[in-house]
Design goal:
The complex is a heterodimer of chains A (107) and B (190). The radius of gyration of chain A is 17 Å and the shape is elongated. The N and C termini of chain A lie far apart (44 Å). With 107 residues, chain A is mostly helical. Chain A contains three helices and two strands, in the order αβαβα. The longest helix of chain A is centred in the middle third of the chain and has 27 residues, at 33-59. Helix content of chain A is 42%, strand content 4%. With 190 residues, chain B is mostly helical. Chain B has six helices and four strands, in the order αβαβααααββ. A two-stranded antiparallel sheet of chain B has the order 3-4. In chain B, β3 (172-175) and β4 form a beta hairpin. The longest helix of chain B is centred in the middle third of the chain and has 45 residues, at 82-126. Classes of the chains: A mainly alpha (107), B mainly alpha (190). β1 (29-30) of chain A pairs parallel with β2 of chain B. Chain A: It comes from Magallana gigas.
Chain lengths: 107, 190
């Protein structure tokens, strides 16, 4: 059965997006359409990140996409430079089990 | 920035759904990877916000608008997002327009409805005991109490029990105002 990729069905809550935006002190008001656009951009962004990362996953012959694959992708693409700090603590190579003690929330 | 990006996470369900749709068949995603993607998404929002805000400030505006966001994508090297975003914006504007029109239509319909109900209520107001005439039989009973000598006693019981209403109708026709100040009783004596 061909799985139908659902587009436009996964939207982020505009209020939450606006909240995140307003953690930036320089940000004043935000037009109503903006969180909607950001939501769509987020969708495309996650898609792009996953697609590119899954290429790394395949090259490494892995069945599971891990944080180290993400880290590699981030370092390979200039447009993902802004994510470098996020994955700084991630090891370059990981085992494929779910219990990974290396990723911690406290940074 | 005092707030850390991790503090403001986007809903996991939505992130998971997008990941599921994007991932090629046969590939799984680890829990940690999902979390990392979620955090990356939050960071993306902040980065996009900052860029968009710069465009707004350049134009001496205090409000970030849709075009600022689209321009920001170009700056962030995500030009491929420009078209989907433009479509998204158009769809949103149409949605808002339709919502507004639907609301205005609803409002108008409600106004007419209220008026109709009010009219009907006014008519029903006078016929409180639903016996077809606009007189209250309570008032009739009150008057009857005053004229004890003249009362009809067809039922053989106390006329005060006439309050039931139906007997009163058999006895008399009532004319006058419903306020009950003056009620004329004419008896149809059988």
């Amino acid at each position: 059965m061909p799985s139908k990729k659902k587009k436009f069905s996964a939207r982020f809550p505009p209020a939450r997006i606006k909240k995140i935006m307003q953690t930036d002190e320089d940000v004043g008001k935000v037009a109503a359409a903006v969180p909607v656009l950001i939501s769509r951009a987020l969708e495309k962004f996650i898609e792009t990140l996953i697609l590119k990362t899954s290429e790394t996953t395949k090259i490494r012959n892995a069945k599971t996409l891990t944080t180290s694959h993400i880290k590699q992708t981030i370092h390979q693409e200039k447009k993902f430079d802004f994510l470098k700090d996020l994955v700084a603590n991630v090891p370059d190579h990981q085992a494929e089990d779910e219990s990974d003690p290396n990723i911690s929330d406290t940074k | 920035m005092a707030e850390r990006p991790e503090d403001l996470n986007l809903p996991n369900a939505v992130v998971t759904r997008i990941i599921k749709d994007a991932i090629p068949d046969g590939v799984n995603v680890s829990k940690e990877a999902r979390l990392a993607i979620s955090k990356a998404a939050s960071v993306f929002v902040l980065y996009a916000t900052s860029c968009s805000n710069n465009y707004a400030m350049k134009a001496k505006r205090k409000t970030i608008n849709a075009n600022d966001v689209i321009s920001a994508m170009e700056e962030m090297e995500f030009d491929q997002f420009e078209d989907p975003l433009k479509h998204c914006l158009e769809a949103y504007r149409n949605e808002q327009k339709n919502k507004k029109e639907a609301n205005e239509k609803k409002k108008k319909e409600k106004e007419v409805e209220v008026q109709t109900v009010e009219d009907v209520m006014e008519e029903e107001e006078d016929d409180e005991d639903n016996d077809g005439d606009n007189e209250k039989d309570e008032d009739f009973v009150a008057e009857e109490d005053e004229d004890d000598d003249e009362e009809e006693d067809e039922e053989g019981g106390d006329v005060e029990s006439v309050g039931l209403g139906s007997v009163a109708n058999d006895n008399a026709s009532v004319s006058g105002s419903a306020t009950g100040s003056v009620v004329e009783i004419s008896d149809d004596d059988g």
